[in-house]
Amino acid sequence: MSREPTSHPKPKTFWEDQGDFLPFSRPSISEEAIQEVVDCLRSGWITTGPRVAQFEADLSTFVGAPHVLSLTSATAGLYLSLQAIGLQPGDEVITTPLTFVATLNVIACLGAKPVLVDIDPHTYNMDLDQIEARITPKTKAIMPVHFAGLPVDMDRLNKIAEHHGLRVIEDAAHAIGSTLNGRQIGSFGDVQVFSFHATKTMTTGEGGAIATRDFELAKRLAVLRFHGIDRPAWDRFSKKGSLHYDVITPATKSNITDLQAAIGIHQLRALDTLIGKRRALVERYQEKLGNRPYLTLPPSGDKRFGHSWHIFAPCVNESEMGMDRDTLMKRLKELNIGTGLHYLPAHLYSCYQDAFGYRPGDFPAAEAIGQRILSLPLFPDMTHGDQDRVIDALETLFFEAKNS
Ligand SMILES: *Cc1c(COP(=O)(O)O)cnc(C)c1O
Fold it and tell me: Which of 186, 251, 349, 379 shows a CA-CA span of 20 to 30 A to 399?
């Protein structure tokens, strides 16, 4: 029996429940995406299937990579990529301390050592001049992070890696839609891992994707993504699928569902527009905050770098502002302005101090930025009115502190 969809009163949004609170990030999900999810639910196929296949094909076209594998998160993507290149316990991977801890966690979870190099204070990305001194016979890979969506100079980094025979796994969690010399991140180099977490530049709720030009690696990743089985599930359950499969390695599972892909397909179609809105808002921040003594604005890179502005993260000048970063975040929250903290340097978390002996002072540039950085609200549907509230709040706190 077929039933007409019952009509519901329009549900209140999560943000309506938050009153006047302006979050630092909020997803922009189109009506088309919502309809695609509903269509998927009604279609009778809700796990990995035709919509995932379409999403991967669309991603492959957008980023310009021959092989794209979607999966449950960037964390899963980084982990499986390291596994797929054959990272062994005791190996070393070179990365940056100014990143989300997932970058280090995946290395340590595989029994390897995250070997860190400090950041370049002009880009907040890893300082390429410091990499070669950290390479040892145990080094297997370099994992750069395109911080905030500003690409690392991959032409230079890839040359260093090639010279030393190292794999390069780019943590591109911030960098979907970023470009270097006009080329999409994902269209060149070794392996790129994107995140589609709800606060990222495009989202599937949770999700991620790996891009690579290495066919053999892509084949291994496809197997590692799904129980070590040598072919996709929806082949088997559909009419044309075969009865048996082989398991060629023990593995866990990290496949995304067609429900997530339904969102992703439309996020990707809108991505250029969404990034355009971010860029326009950033320009407005730069215009209005560029001459304020209490902030140092984030690096935007020269004309080689197509910055996608996943976050807009200035540094607080404590003495001018009359308060430190944490106090400023607290005061802004009292004024109903949300901020993000990207990031406290990862080497200072207790498990990294305990397991690898990292200490305060090891990476002074990352620590100096990590102490002062905060992410101001930035999302595509943010209005000029929203943005003015942020700027006014900063000005109010600055003048209050100055006159007290
Ligand atoms: C968000 C993020 C990740 C993890 O992404 P998930 O999709 O949430 O697993 C990894 N690295 C960086 C730099 C990130 O910002």
Answer: 379
